[in-house]
Design a protein that fits this description.
InterPro entries: Nudix_hydrolase, NUDIX_hydrolase-like_dom_sf, NUDIX_hydrolase_CS, NUDIX_hydrolase_dom
Family: Belongs to the Nudix hydrolase family.
Shape: globular
Structural class: alpha/beta
Radius of gyration: 14 Å
Pfam family, one: NUDIX
Helix content: 10-25%
Strand content: 35-45%
Cofactor: Mg(2+)
Protein name: DNA mismatch repair protein MutT
Length: about 150
Amino acid sequence: MRQRDSARLLVINPSKQVLLFHFQHKNDALAGQSHWATPGGGLEPGESFEAAAVRELFEETGLKVAAVGDSVAERRFPMMLPSGETVLSVERYFVVHTDNERLSREGWTAHEVQVMADHKWWSLAELRETRETVWPERLIEMLKNA
């Protein structure tokens, strides 16, 4: 099984809410699945996790940072990609605090435009109470240290 490394971001606003995107798959191998997840994505060849975090943050939100700090969490699990390929996903999570809640979709890929249906800033209380699928499953624990 191929390993897919990715950088994920815990983007936190001044109200201590975390940014999540709503993914709704319609026309790929994950058709019918719906979940909320942090911004982020796969590393490009030769790219570090930290550089990917900075790049993905800008591409998916329009927010610019010069650098991110150390990873606050790591997750490893088998995952099916929208292409149908199953990979060993290795995700590292980075915290970014922002005062800017205005997001831009200008850097989105065609696939992201198709599957990223919405975004929301979530409070800890909302995360505890929701019945929706939210990834990563330990997000609340991760946020306690953010």
